[in-house]
Amino acid sequence: MSALKDLLAQKEALDKQIELLSREERSEAIARIKALMADHGLTVGDLGGKAPAAEKSSKKGSKVAAKYRDPESGNTWSGRGLQPNWLKAAIDGGKTLEDFAV
């Protein structure tokens, strides 16, 4: 059993060394890339990719066309997510979902 514990301790030590060296090499690579970009006046956009903030903002807040509309109140629902209360109440009152289709 002592040999197993020794091997597990060695494995843990090696895993820590691997993680440390990986972080160091990554940091060095990032520093070299930033230096090259600064030397040549390049931006992330010049590399043909989008900046991370631009990707997130382009996806956020996208609108979906309404599939259902209440002709009396003008309330709409895209058909995504939970049914709104006005639609639930109308369906419970005897109407069908198709009655509100746009």
Strand content: under 5%
Runs in which pLDDT lies below 50 for 5 or more consecutive residues are none
Distance between the termini: 72 Å
Percent in helix:
40-55%
> Strand order of the main beta sheet, please?
1-2
Multimerization state: single chain
Question: What is the CA-atom radius of gyration, in angstroms?
Answer: 29 Å
Report mean pLDDT, rounded to a whole number.
Answer: 87
Q: Structural class, from secondary structure content?
A: mainly alpha
Give me the number of helical elements: 3
Q: What is the global morphology? A: elongated
Query: How many DSSP E strands?
Result: 2
Biggest β-sheet description: 2 strands, antiparallel
SSE run: HHEEH
Question: How do the strands and helices of this protein lay out in sequence?
Answer:
Blueprint: H1 2-40, H2 52-59, E1 68-69, E2 76-77, H3 85-92
Antiparallel strand pairs: 1-2
Keywords:
mainly alpha; 2 strands; H-NS DNA Binding Protein; two-stranded antiparallel ribbon; 54% helix; 102 residues; 2 domains
